[in-house]
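lol forgot to send this yesterday, sorry. struct tokens for the thing we talked abt
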């Protein structure tokens, strides 16, 4: 179905100009007067840019191209959740797919995507925007953050009725994302049926490739840090920062460290039963979920960051 064949929201606000039926993507507008021009000038990242492992990227690629379900990204403030959502949208955004976002604020301008920036003082909240947007029957909806039970319920119900939903939650790990949804009032059966996967993340600084210094470490030392036998056999490229004209302090840029959980039948069953976060975590680990530390070690082994930086970011 072409984007122009979908109906448009039958509502207006001071913040958005909603396209009417038959309008092309090029006519979709959003009031970005409160958004920094420098932010909008940046190119949206891709999934390849943010540091996902090959397997994790393949898993997420397969997930986000489905017709329905909810993909959640979680982590503390400043962990790069919005960047990951934009990277996923970059992968999804193809001709013929109707994508609408609700954001606070809009951080990147995405071609051919109708982006709404919320204005709570004017009555345009995540929940009110979502209600209107659903009348347009979009294929994909990105909600910047789930903060309240009303937004959560509307978003997850949409994920069960023919829409793919992406959003973020302020929680520390994937199992806690499910318990957090129930804590704010989402029915357990809705959370278990709608959420298809959760990605947790942190940001670590990239060690400068121009001045980094190699560190020699024995197999025993590498093993104590948590490197697997396979990683040690392949070779671990550990470095320390030094500092140069390009970076000043030995680090340049940042890269994500991730933990990915697929909500399989067992995790969905446990969520419906409202089990503890620890029980959900045990089921996720049994199904193959790794840890942030393990993903960080992979980036240390590849010379992208340092052990000291992992300790700083992950504790």
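and heres what i got for the seq, position by position
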């Amino acid at each position: 179905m072409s984007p122009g064949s979908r109906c448009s929201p039958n509502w207006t606000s001071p913040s958005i100009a909603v396209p009417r039926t038959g309008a092309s993507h090029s006519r979709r507008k959003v009031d970005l007067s409160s958004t920094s021009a420098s932010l909008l000038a940046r190119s949206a990242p891709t999934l390849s840019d943010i540091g996902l492992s090959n397997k994790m990227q393949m898993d997420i690629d397969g997930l986000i191209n489905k017709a329905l379900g909810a993909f959640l990204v979680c982590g503390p403030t400043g962990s790069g959740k919005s960047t990951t959502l934009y990277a996923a949208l970059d992968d999804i955004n193809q001709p013929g797919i109707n994508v609408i976002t609700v954001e606070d604020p809009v951080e990147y301008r995405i071609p051919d995507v109708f982006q709404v920036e919320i204005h709570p003082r004017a009555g345009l909240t995540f929940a009110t925007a979502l209600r209107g947007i659903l009348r347009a029957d979009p294929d994909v909806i990105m909600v910047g953050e789930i903060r309240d039970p009303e937004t959560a319920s509307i978003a997850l119900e949409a994920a069960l009725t023919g829409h793919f939903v992406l959003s973020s939650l302020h929680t520390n790990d994937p199992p806690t994302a499910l318990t957090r949804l129930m804590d704010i009032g989402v029915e357990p059966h809705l959370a278990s049926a709608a959420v298809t996967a959760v990605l947790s993340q942190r940001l670590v600084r990239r060690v400068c490739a121009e001045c980094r210094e190699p560190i020699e470490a024995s197999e025993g030392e590498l093993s104590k840090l948590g490197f697997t036998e396979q990683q040690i056999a392949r070779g671990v490229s550990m470095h320390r920062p030094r500092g140069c004209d390009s970076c000043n302090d030995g680090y340049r840029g940042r890269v994500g460290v991730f933990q990915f959980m697929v909500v399989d039948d067992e995790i969905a069953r446990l969520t419906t039963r409202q089990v503890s976060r620890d029980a959900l975590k045990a089921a996720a680990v049994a199904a193959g979920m790794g840890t942030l530390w393990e993903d960080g070690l992979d980036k240390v082994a590849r010379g992208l960051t340092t052990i000291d930086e992992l300790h700083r970011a992950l504790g």
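The chain has 13 helices and eleven strands. anyway ping me if u want another try
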